[in-house]
From TrEMBL:
The keyword Transcription does not apply. InterPro entries: Mt_import_TIM15, Znf_DNL-typ. PROSITE patterns: ZF_DNL. One of its GO terms (molecular function) is protein-folding chaperone binding. Pfam families: zf-DNL (PF05180). It comes from Guillardia theta (strain CCMP2712) (Cryptophyte). One of its GO terms (cellular component) is mitochondrion. It comes from the Eukaryota. Residues 1-63 form the DNL-type domain. This is DNL-type domain-containing protein.
Length: 63
C-alpha cells in the first residue's frame, strides 16, 4: 500500500509505502521527511489508543 500526504506540521508533501497487513492488522507509523515528526496511521493493536480514543502513550520523539 502507498499513501501520499502532506505533513500538518511542516507542509511537506510525501509518499510512504507499507504493507496491507500492517495497515489492517498492526501498527503503521511514518516519519515526515521534512521535519521528522512521526504520524500514526493505524493502531489495530491498541498500543497508542484505548477503547475510548484517548492516547495511552506518546510516540518517542526523534532526537
Amino acid at each position: 500500500m502507498q499513501i501520499v500526504f502532506t505533513c500538518n506540521k511542516c507542509e511537506t508533501r510525501q509518499s510512504k509505502i507499507f504493507t496491507r497487513m500492517a495497515y489492517e492488522k498492526g501498527v503503521v507509523i511514518v516519519k515526515c521527511d521534512g521535519c521528522g515528526v512521526q504520524h500514526l496511521l493505524a493502531d489495530n493493536l491498541g498500543y497508542f489508543y484505548d477503547s475510548t480514543g484517548f492516547t495511552k502513550c506518546r510516540i518517542a520523539a526523534h532526537t
